[in-house]
Amino acid sequence: MFLGLYNYWIVVVLMMIGFYIVIAHGNLIKKLVGLTIFQTSVFIFYISMAKVNGGTAPIVGDGIEIYSNPLPHVLILTAIVVGIATTALGLALTVRIKEAYGSIEEEEIQKKDNSTC
Amino acid sequence: MLEHLPILQVIVPLMAAPLCLLFRHSRAAWLFALIASGTALVISILLLQQVLATGLISYALGGWQAPWGIEYRIDTLNAFLLLIISSLSTVVLLAADTSISKEIPKEKHSLFYVLYLLSLTGMLGIVATGDAFNVFVFLEISSLSAYALIALGSDRRALWASYQYLIMGTIGATFILIGIGLMYQMTGTLNMHDLSNRLPEVAQTRTVFTAFAFVIVGVCLKLALFPLHLWLPNAYAYAPSIVTAFFAATATKVAIYLLIRFTYSVFGFSFSFTALPLQLLFVVLGVLGIFVASSAAIYQSNVKHLFAYSSIAQIGYMIVGFSISTVAGLTATLLHLFNHALMKGALFLALAAVMHRIGSVQLSALKGLGREMPLTMAAIVAGGLSLIGVPLTVGFVSKWYLVLALLENGWWPVAMLILLGSLLAIVYVWRIVEVAYFQPRGGPGELSKDPVREAPLAFLVPIWLLVIANVYFGIDTRLSVEVAQTASESLFGLSQ
Question: Which residue in A1, B158, B396, B425 could disulfide with B238, CB within 3.0 to 4.6 Å?
Answer without folding.
Answer: B158
